[in-house]
Structure formats: structure tokens, C-alpha cells
What does this fold into?
Amino acid sequence: MEHNANNPASLELTLIEQTNAMLAAIVATSDDTIISKNLDGIILSWNPASERMFGYSEEEALGKHISIIIPPERLEEEDYIINEVKQGRKVDHFETIRKARDGRRVPISLSVSPIVDPNGLVIGASKIARDISERKRANEKQAVLAAIVETSDDAIVSKTLQGIITSWNKAAERMFGYTEDEAVGKHITLIIPPERLDEESYIIGEIIKGNKIDHFHTVRRAKDGHLIPISVSVSPITDESGKVVGASKIARDISEQLSLQAERARHYEEVKALNARKDEFIGLASHELKTPLTSVAGYLEILSRMVTEEKGQLFLQKTRQQVKKLSALVDDLLDVTKIESGKLSFSEEQFDIRKVVEDVIELISHSNHQFQFVLNAEVDELFITGDPNRIEQVLTNLLTNAVRYSPGTDRIELFLSKDEECALIGVRDYGVGIPEDKLEEIFSRFYRVDETKSQASGLGLGLYLSQEIVSRHGGTIWAESETGKGSTFWVRLPIKL
Ligand code: ADP
It folds into this structure.
């Protein structure tokens, strides 16, 4: 400034010249397009912002008719504007569309003022235009968001940090019974039951820290006083500088969800109770069956000593076999009840597992002459700790199944080996096999593959009991199989418990 003040040239500038220079500078640096034209529509000035907005340079625009930037369908707007200006009136914030050099349409807000000569005569118009595409986009976005909020099934409410409700959508009206007019401006405690008021300070505390609260299950109160269980998510609302200025909450009525849950829990309890009664019944029934069965077996034993006739002996033999089968089924049922009530007990002793395997082979081959049982043992003897009777029960199950599910075949193989810590026993048959997706299920209680098609009778308990016994020995049992080709059941038992 000081420099300019000493400059004789700038000192010579008249006040008007100075003002003009200043105005010219403002026009040149303005972000708004500033254009002036005469009353015939001929462009007289064209600032750099006009150049940026419409793509015509000052040189190209000066002297041209203003219609170069007016889309053909809007040409009559110009007549209206000029008319207003001629009458000395100003046109303010007229929203319209103009056309850039490349044909692009630019939404603008236009203000046009008359230019008057010293005599007060209107000689032209100056127009200032602002690009409002950004604002238009923001408006559209806001309209979409507003539509989403209005049509949402969830209640969407916003409030200030002091808890004053600032917006209230249609779903909030439906859920809480207050209209938008009734709710906006009120404190959010409008819908908070008195005993839950401290929740609000917790929520606001989190929001002030900038935290979001997700799926907070609580209860709110509607206008008519009824309580609504809701799941609410609350997010901070921030201003442009990032400062938290309020909270928006989305609430979903979860009464239906809750009653569904309660119903499910009730069903579950019912099923559990029924199941317990069923177990109780199985226990009772098998116990009641066991007593007469034991005496039947006893009397048959006595009878067999008295009957000398050959035919009578044959029938007795068959009867005893059937009674044995029946006893085995009842025993299985009793075992299941014991497992369910945690009363299945085990002895713990050292025994030779090879001996047990051989005993079971002998027992089963006795009544299944059509099969050849082949034992591949890598050890002469193998002592392990556990309950020999229970392990025998497992192996008997496996061998019985191998026979039962291998009609028309004649060979069953057994394997016995050991590694450092475990004994491994395998039972392989060449029977019907088990589908891959059933290999785990067969160990569940009462499970039978393809029950309807199966020719063999059974309760689906053998493998369930076997698995229970093996796992109580700290071991594992599993099956490998290929349908139509046969199955191998493996049992791995720790040598020491
Ligand atoms: P059950 O033999 O009394 O049905 P299990 O628990 O012993 O009960 O066996 C469950 C099911 O597993 C059987 O019904 C049968 O479908 C299948 N299964 C068991 N062992 C074999 C096997 N060796 N070959 C083919 N299927 C078998």
C-alpha cells in the first residue's frame, strides 16, 4: 500500500476509476458467473467464472446473443426476464437450466438486475448465476433418505444431546402412538418408562464419546401406556466439524420375536419333560421285563435237564436262544437308562484284550457257521486296563452287526495291533455298507440306517452303547465304509486308563 501511495500513477487515479478497478477485480475473481447484456440480449461482459461454467472464452462470448447458453426449450424465459428488467425490476434466485458449449446442461440459480444509465434509463441487464448441481444432488439425496426414513418399518427418531426430539418418522408414530407434531420438541423421556430413565443418561454418555450402541434390548412406553419391548441402535449425529450434536436412534419392536422365543423355550421344556418321561418309562418297562425273563431262563435251564426226548431238547434249545436274544435287548435298554441317569458303572482291571477278542469270535461263530472269522493279530497278548465285560459287549455288538448286515457273504476279518499307548481293534465285513453321510449318525441313540428297507431287526442301540462304553474308557470308535462293499469298525483303546 505504501508503495502504491508513493506511486504517482496510482495517485492520479480518480475515485471512480478506483471503484471501477475494484469492481472489475471482484467480478474477475467471483466464483459466480457474472454476465451483462444489453436489452437486445447481446453479451457485453463475461467473467472468468462464466468461462468455466459454460466453456466459452470471453472473446467467443462477447458480442454474441445470450441465447448461446439458453436451451432451445427455454428461450421464452429470456423474453420474460428482459421484460422484467425493462420495467426496472430485479429477478431473484430464478432456478433454471442453461446450456454449456459442449451441450452439457447446468442447473443454475439466476439473479438478474437492470443496468441503468445516469438518467435512470434501463440500458441492459447484469446477471449473476450460481451452479446449483451440487445442491440439487444433495437435495435429491436428502429426498431419497427422507423417503427411506418415512417408509421404514423401524421407528427412526433423532434427538439433541439434551434429549429433545428433533425428528420422528411414521413408524415411530405407529409404534409409540404419538404423532410427529406431538413428539418433536418434547424430551425423549416421553417414551421412557420411569424405572428406565437412567438408561438414557448411559446412552447419551456413550453418544457424547462418539460411540454407537447396537441392538440394545429394552422397553419403551407408548402413548396409551402399554410397554413395547424394542431392540434399539443409537448413533451419534455429528456436525461438519465432527462434533457430536445429537443422536439418531432406530428402534424395532421385538414383541413378536420375544414371544416366539418364549414359545420355543416352552416347546423345548415340553419336549425335555416328555423325553425324561420316555426314559423313565423305558427304564421301568425294561426293569419289569427283566424279572420274568430271568425266571423264564432259569426254568428253561431246569427243564432242559429233565427233558430227554430229542425233539423236546431241540425246541428247548430254540426257546433258550430266543430268550437270550430278548434278554440282550432288555439289557441294552437297561444300559441306556443307566447312561441317561449317569449310573452306568465300570470295573477297572487289567485284562488281555486278545483273549476277549478270541472269546467273542468263538461265541459268535458258534451260532453263525456260514461265516469264517479271521483274526489278524500283531500281538500274542495285550493287557489293557478297563472293564472286560463292557469291552466284550462292544466287540459282541460289532461282530453281531457284521454278521447281521452282511447277508450272502461268508468272511469277517478282525485286526488287533498296538502302538505306544493304544490297542487298535478292527472288525471288517463285506456286507451292505453304510452311506458316507450316515457314518457318524449310526452312533446316535435309536438310529438305524434306512429303517424301512432294512431286513435285520434291531433297536438302534448297539453302537450308541458301544460308543458310550469306549469313550468312558478314554478311547474312540469310528466306521469306514463303502456302500455295497462292506464296512470296517475301528476301536482305539488306551492301554492304561
Ligand atoms: P441295530 O443294529 O440294532 O440297528 P446299532 O446301533 O448296532 O443298532 O447300529 C445302528 C445302525 O447302523 C444299524 O441299524 C445299521 O443300519 C448300521 N450298521 C451298524 N453296523 C453295520 C455294519 N456292519 N454294516 C452296515 N450297517 C451297519
Summary: The mean pLDDT is 90. Residues 255-306 form the longest helix (52 residues). The chain has four domains: 31-131, 137-253, 259-341, 349-494. The pocket of adenosine-5'-diphosphate is lined by residues 397, 401-402, 405, 429, 431-434, 442, 447-449, 454, 458-464, 487 (CB under 6 Å).
